Amino acid sequence: MNPEFEHLYQALSKVDGFIYPNEIELSWSVLIVLYPFITGLVAGAFILASLERVFNVKSLKPTYVIALLTAFSFMLVATMPLVFHLGQPFRAWEIMITPHLTSAMAIFGFVYLWYLMVVLLLEIWFDYRVDLVIWSKTATGFKRIVYKALSLGSDDISPKSVKLDDKLGYIVTVIGIPSAFLLHGYVGFIFGSIKANPWWSTVMMPIIFLFSAMVSGIALVMVLFIVINYLRKQKIDMLCLDTIAKYLFYIIIIDFTMESLDQIHRFYEAEESFEIISLLISGHLNFTLLIMQIGVGMMLPLGTLGVLQFYKPAAHIRKAIYFVVGILVLIGIFFMRWNVVIGGQLFSKSFLGFTSFKLSLIGSEGFLMASIWLVVPFFILTFLLWLFPPWKKTPVDH
Amino acid sequence: MTEKKTSLSRRNFFKNAGIAAGTLVAATTLPAFDAVLYAAVKRNPKGPWYGIAIDIEKCIGCGTCAKTCKIENDVPQEPFFFRSWVEQYTILKDGSIKVISPNGGIDGFTQSTSADDIEKTFFVPKMCNHCAKSPCVQVCPVGATFETEEGIVLIDEKYCIGCKYCVQACPYGCRYFHPDKHVVDKCTLCFHRVKKGLNPACMDNCPTKARISGDLNDPESAISKFIRTRNVYVLKPHLNTGSKLYYNALNQEVR
Amino acid sequence: MPLHLKRLLMLGVLIVLLFLLLKHLLTPVSFGQFGHYRGKAIDEIAAHQVKFVGNKACVSCHDTIVTMKNEGYHSDLSCEGCHGAAYLHVDHPKLEKLFKPDSREFCGKCHSINKARPEKAVTQQNIKDHHPEDKCIKCHNPHQP
């Protein structure tokens, strides 16, 4: 037996019921779980930032720049798992050069670039430009070169141009909100538009992806806000933290409602695929869906945050609770992506059986590789916070 | 009296209106809808438009189609990669359904269920449906999978990036990721044979001539006659893929 | 317009131009010839090697045995369906020998009893009970069964 196929022979022996013979191996593995997870964090973090800027939620101001930099760090990595899962990674450029316009995946390349270059990069740049000019005069060495290059050789910080920058930054943010919706709604559409797969094919998919993205992004910024303040030994702004938690609570309610609606609808209509999907939920996904996604990742945070809306314990206890809740939410949303991506491939399109999936430790689609793509954004963020410390910015009032 | 008269004339009014509406149907502005089965026929004005027909009443489940396909098209021999395969459906007397396809049927089928328990059993050969509204072509991000003018869905193995989105989009499980080429692979309807005037390998080697392919544009072709004279079905018609793989005597249980 | 915005705009234009240049340079020549794909791919796929050469090729050397087969129940069968692809054998008949199946299992793929096999399509036999110790070809000539 060729050792290359050993895992497939193992999977073959675990096939439950009937599957088409080509369906033994899952086409999309953990890297494609990461892709919507990371993109969701980007969209969610950005939407939190825009709450302050556009919707004028002043108490969120301390998180504005952190949220933007977080979104940017994750955005840089978002395409990496995608490219590395390809059979021919060196042909990835074709997706930009000859995009097939009927393919949701092809359009994603442009939505991604639009979001990264036009929205995130510009908004951060407009926000930092005055500081870049000031820092380029005081800093030395590497930092000085970077600041100088990024200020594009202009040291115009007259009140007039600063005001113009602020206005343009505002416009970019306004454009950014629908763009963030587009970005993650689109990721949902990649799955939601596959009519061959009843677990994916639902009009709710983009909406569910969008709200779960907001949930995960807000939770991530909340956790990072706590960690950064802890590491800098700063007293945390509890009003800000409470406000983030409040928004997180509201968005989880919406997300929960949407996801429940989708499942209730599926069960009530009980179409052709009903039997295989109920077996999927009660069997293969009972841990990742019922326990991790719904229990740990949704009900527990929802209950905790709900109680905290009425009963407020001491600040340090609330902080600890928020931290734990944030982590739980992130785990829950990760499993939500898992259940969509992996769950959707476990059952056969003949609706008559299941294949199995075992996450390997090593290899390009293994656990270690996936962990690397999850850790890298935090290193990028640390680097960005070192290079562009938000706490050293000249205070501006938008 | 007057009251009765009004109601009568009202009834007449509706009656006349109904007749008028009935005749109007002929002059409707609605375009004619395509019949599901024929939605995919006659699409290439310049040349042939290929389709496939399989007669389930002739299939003996020997697996020669699947075996020869692998050889003709360099499909890996391991039992996870198939361009063409055979399934055996068995409906038991208790109403349950059992489907098998050991090694795609290449090694033949052995009856594992007691004949007394069987209500009905039959073989279903499967292959790419060469859909006219292919979900796989629709989702390919780079244009590496495409439909030729003759209605054959192909993969450009030098251009495929291996994202496997098409594997997800195919409702029939006809695509697989080629372990050596690192691109997606599928049935080409033996394009290299058809272009040389030959039949696909699976059809030439079928001992009972249960499968035919040919030009759907030509009303005199064997496949056109087959579709015309039999009660043919396509798989998963509700997905509106414009499948051009027509089965004679297909059981509704088959998915 | 302030200097930094001018430069930003220039940078943006530069990126777009660079993208368009790359698109022009990297798009394969035959792309879009017939549709959204590489037109040349069609010829490449059409040029693949034909491996099952067909009964006509067999007749040129093995005419008596092909004629015998064509007069019997196996008249519809292709030679290569049992013997395998002959594309190498036709070029090097001495070096590349074809497969001569003789196992009971091989015959059983078509002829063993299975309720799913349509009765009128093929003769079926219980291969477990029917002279289990002998090869089928001991009594049945596969070319004239």
Keywords:
heterotrimer; A: 398 residues; mainly alpha; Formate dehydrogenase/DMSO reductase fold; two-stranded antiparallel sheet; 14 helices; 72% helix; C: 145 residues; Helix Hairpins; 3 domains; 6 helices
Q: Summary?
A:
With 398 residues, chain A is mainly alpha-helical. Chain A is built from 14 helices and 2 strands; from the N terminus they run αβααααααααααααβα.
What report would you give on this structure?
The complex is a heterotrimer of chains A (398), B (255) and C (145). Chain A is mainly alpha-helical. Chain A has helices at 6-13, 30-53, 64-85, 94-97, 104-138, 141-150, 159-192, 204-231, 238-269, 274-284, 286-310, 315-341, 343-346, 367-387, and strands at 16-17, 353-354. A two-stranded antiparallel ribbon of chain A has the order 1-2. The longest helix of chain B has 23 residues, at 2-24. Chain C has 3 domains: 3-46, no CATH class; 49-99, Helix Hairpins; 101-145, no CATH class. Chains in contact: A-B, A-C, B-C. At the A-B interface, helix 5 of A face strand 3, helix 3, helix 4 and strand 7 of B.
- Label the overall shape of chain B: globular
Q: What percent strand of chain B?
A: 15-25%
> What is the subunit organization of this protein?
heterotrimer
Query: From the coordinates shown, what is the CATH architecture of the domain at 50-83 and 127-248 in chain B?
Result: 2-Layer Sandwich
What is the topology?
The complex is a heterotrimer of chains A (about 400), B (about 260) and C (about 140).
Chain A: H1 6-13, E1 16-17, H2 30-53, H3 64-85, H4 94-97, H5 104-138, H6 141-150, H7 159-192, H8 204-231, H9 238-269, H10 274-284, H11 286-310, H12 315-341, H13 343-346, E2 353-354, H14 367-387
Antiparallel strand pairs in A: 1-2
Helix pairs in contact in A: 2-3, 2-7, 2-8, 2-12, 2-14, 3-5, 3-8, 3-14, 5-6, 5-7, 7-8, 8-9, 8-12, 9-11, 10-11, 11-12
Chain B: H1 2-24, E1 50-55, H2 64-72, E2 84-92, E3 97-100, E4 118-127, H3 135-139, E5 145-147, E6 153-155, H4 165-169, E7 176-177, E8 184-185, H5 191-194, H6 201-204, E9 211-215, H7 222-229, E10 232-233, E11 245-248
Parallel strand pairs in B: 1-11
Antiparallel strand pairs in B: 1-9, 2-3, 2-4, 5-6, 7-8, 10-11
Chain C: H1 3-26, H2 40-46, H3 55-70, H4 79-83, H5 87-91, H6 104-111
